[in-house]
Amino acid sequence: MARSLQARSRRGRRALLWAFTVFVLVQLGGGLVLDYIWPELRFPTAYLTFKALQQQAKAPDVMCLGSSRFGAGFAQEQIRDILREETGDTTLTVFNAAIEAGDLVTADFIMEGVLEQGTKPRVVVIEVSPETLARRGEWMGQHVLRQLTWEDVPEHLGDIWRSGNMVRLLSARLLPLHMHRHEICRPVRDHVAALLSPPKKKGKKQSTQPAASTQGVPWEVFMELDQQVANPAKTSAGLPVIRRWLKNYSVGGGAGRALERLVQRCREEEVQVILVGVPVTEAHRALYTPEIDHAFLARLVDVSRRYHCRFVDYRGRIPDDYFLDNHHLHRSGGYYFSKLLAQETLAPVLLERREMAGVVAADSR
Amino acid sequence: MLFPTFKFFVFYCLVFSIYWSLPTLVRWLPGGRHLNPTRLRLGWLLIASCYFYMSWNPWLILLILFSASVDYAVALFLQRITAPWKRRTLLILSISTNLALLAFFKYTNFLVGTAVGSLNLFGFANDPVVLNIILPLGISFYTFETISYIVDVYQGRLKPVRNLLDYALYIMFFPHLVAGPIVRPRDFLPQLRQAKRWNWDRLQLGAQFFVIGLFKKAVIADQLATLADPVFASPDKYASSSIWLGVMCYAVQIYCDFSGYSDMAVGIAHTFGFKLPRNFNLPYFAVNITDFWRRWHISLSNWLRDYLYIPLGGNRGGTFATYRNLMLTMLLGGLWHGASWTFVAWGLYHGLLLSLHRAVPLPRWTGHAVFKPFFVAATFLAVCVGWVFFRAQTFAEAGLILQRMAWATPGKSIEPAMFTLGVVGLIFMLLCYLISTFIDLRRVERWLPAPVLGTAVAVVFLLAQVLMPEDGKAFIYFQF
Asked: Are B454 and A196 an interchain contact pair (Cβ–Cβ within 8 Å)?
């Protein structure tokens, strides 16, 4: 009897060890697969963007990197049309590579991926704001899920700790199959749904809405919304979140390093960088205390000087009427901002580059 | 703190590791060698259980401690007092206190609403006052446990517990605290006195139970809920076929949700060296409604039988009394589930079915195995009809669903992908049931080599992790 109990206990221990080992190996193995073989499952919007860029006939002349703020505000078709008119270059293309919840760490990741696939824009417009340059790194929760691999963890550990995302990091690293289950199951679900759905009828009326931009991320949700009259409730919505992001503000951390790495890489690749302070509402700007502004601007001035890039501040340039909430422009607001950006900043930069290229060409002859 | 959450995982790991290492840890303390490791472990479990309960609402711990203290004190008095009228008074005092608390927290708004509704029938136009009363988690479960304790002590079936720690842990042991199983003091209290020894086999068994429970709840129940919820939310839109599928999916959902939770509770208890009673035994393979209630929420049905049906007289008072007692027991059983007339109707419906089953004996030849599938299907369908009342918010909604079940009605169909999900879920459960019925899974489990068993547990756990929906739903029985 005692021997039988001992045998069962040993068996139980072996079974548990096997269960633990198989579980850990499958999770870690699955994590490595998601990190290096199928990273698009972790970060689908980024890889849609890469794919959309690859499908372009040529590299875009102007590309923007940012968050949903730029996603909503950077009307690429309008900017393209204005720049073609201003520069006379009818082949000029513009691409909005903004990613939702994208900060400077995301921008660095996107640019790295874009350059690695051989796409080199002439000008890169990078969204900056005090929040995205904060040491606190509020977007770390997204990064641990979307893009950070085991190699990146040591560099970002401090930011992850400061932003309170250690649990998320552990979950993402140790339980990747669970954390990305939606993305893993989606292809199967979509396939089954496609098999079971009735075939679409021919001659269905096409949507009269402009086709989704050639970028991977559909920003129509913002572009389709329009609001002529400022709604104080809406334009101040989300302010408590921003207030939290700006608490105990200091510049640097992972975001600061990402910005420097990004502009440095762009400089090496001879990609002109324009840092753009993204428009926000008055109530939002009121949260930028003089100390926050000073720290933010000082860092940008320093980066601009060292890496020979420009910084233009549009934070207070757009009236509140053009906003959906405290920091997203609606369609008309996006057109307004895009027009300003294209005419005031992008067109002169492109013309200057053409002039410089002309001078260089003349010199080389 | 739900079981399938990271927060609970951290809590459990901490409680588990300290529980088993306490005797070793205290040995290093001055005088630690003289401390009783079993008592230490129980104390630690009680602290952990208090924390577990307080994570829902910190103040409601006072309620459960008050309820436990009253019963503990009354039980000790019952042992000393011999005069029958005094003992009865104490019993009534204890039960009344527990039921009064339950009535206040759970049924106040229901009673007020019913009273105002009744007055409105006579022309008084009043809106019912809705009091903002928080329903303490698990109150229905622990109230029944306290009642069973005090009644067992009164009837001499159990000696009162001398140590308040033991009694408090019986009530508050966190695996079964919020949604059962309803544990009998006779089954649990002796386990507190047994020394707990580390047992890998028990730990492995506990892990198996937990993982299977997690799969049932997080994968099957929560996925089927995505189909059943829209159907019950807008039954007027759906065609009869969709209504039928929605109802059957809800039947499987509630079974997997509740039995999944019970399995997880049993598994967790196992890892601490405690055995909780089995709460489900393939209820949808019942051959009649009486059999169903021997298989569904076994701890509740046994409690209702022992502490309500039998004290009312059971089947000893003649035909009329038997049916009355059955109906009353099931009515109160329905009311226990929720403060709503639809739950009462559900209880009455089952009371009626039980009475009918008793009243209409079937010929002996119907007991032949070849008729079993027919009786199983009929019982399942009858139970599904009952679930309509259980799930619907109002009688109008229930009536609409039943109408569409009874008469073919056109309407919206469930999306093909969801339909497939529902059918696959139902077939999967049927296969599991069939396997469980015809194969002795315990023997198979004992025969399997350790690597295969371990891998199977890991695979089920991984599947549960990957297939659980994005937004996990709360346990259905938490609301009771």
From this structure: no
Query: Which residues lie closer than 8 Å to A348 by C-beta, 6 or more apart?
Result: none
Q: What is the pLDDT of residue A3?
A: 65
Q: What is the DSSP letter of B281?
A: S
Tokens of A183: 């993305």
A157 vs A165: CA distance, rounded Å:
9
Inter-chain touch A19–B207, beta carbons under 8 Å: yes
> Chain A within 8 Å of B461 (Cβ-Cβ)?
yes
For residues B160 and B91, what is the distance between their CA atoms, to the nearest angstrom?
13
In contact, B204 and A15? CB cutoff 8 Å: yes
Give the pair of three-digit tokens for residue B389: 């009342």
- Quote the ipTM score: 0.86
Cα-based distances in Å from B8 to B1, B53, B175: 6, 12, 11
Read off the pLDDT band of A299 (50, 70, 90): very high
- Whether B454 has its CB under 8 Å from any CB of chain A: the answer is yes
Report the alpha-carbon distance of residue B18 to residue B46 in Å, rounded: 13
Contact residues, B window 26-85, toward A, CB-based 8 Å cutoff = none
Res A262: pLDDT: 96
Alpha carbon B322 to its chain centroid, in Å, reads 26
Report d(CA B324, CA B316) in Å as an integer.
12
Residue A313 pairs in a beta bridge with: A277
Q: Which residues of B are catalytic?
A: 337
The whole-angstrom separation of Cα A1 and Cα A104 is: 66
Backbone angles phi, psi at A62, to 5 degrees: -125, 130
Each residue of A150-166: pLDDT tens digit?
999 998 999 899 888 99
Q: State whether residue B420 sits within 8 Å of chain A by CB.
A: yes
Do residues A86 and A347 lie in contact, with contact meaning Cβ atoms separated by under 8 Å? yes
Check CB contact of B457 with chain A, cutoff 8 Å.
yes
Closest C-alpha to A140, from A276, A273, A257:
A257
The whole-angstrom separation of Cα A114 and Cα A92 is: 18
**CA–CA distance from B7 to each of A157, A258, B176, B217, B434 (Å)?**
21, 32, 18, 18, 36
Instruction: Return d(Cα A258, Cα A112) in angstroms, integer.
Output: 11
Q: Give B472→chain A minimum CA distance, Å.
A: 13
CA B172 to chain centre: 15
Neighbours of B232 (CB within 10 A): 21
User: Is the CB of residue B460 less than 8 Å away from at least one CB of chain A?
Assistant: no
* pTM of the predicted structure, to 2 decimals: 0.86
Q: Is the peptide bond before B230 cis (omega within 30 degrees of 0)?
A: no
Q: Which amino acid is at B394?
A: T
B451 to chain A, any CB pair closer than 8 A? The answer is yes
Task: Tell me which residue of B19, B39, B35 sits closest to B27, measured CA to CA.
Answer: B35
What tokens does B414 get? 């469930």
Tokens representing residue A13 in the block: 């221990």
Selecting from A16, A185, A198 the residue whose C-beta is nearest the C-beta of B204 gives A16
Name, of A20-24, A98-102, B229-233, the range with top average pLDDT.
A20-24
CA B471 to CA B22: how far, in whole Å? 37
Question: From A20, which residue of chain B is nearest by alpha-carbon distance?
Answer: B458
With CA atoms as reference, the chain A residue closest to B459 would be: A23
The order of strands in the sheet holding A310-313 is: A94-96, A62-65, A123-128, A272-277, A310-313
Q: How close B19 comes to chain A (CA, Å)?
A: 18
> Would you say A107 and A66 are in contact if contact means Cβ atoms under 8 Å apart?
yes
Nearest-by-CA chain B residue for A198 = B416
d(CA B292, CA B284): 7
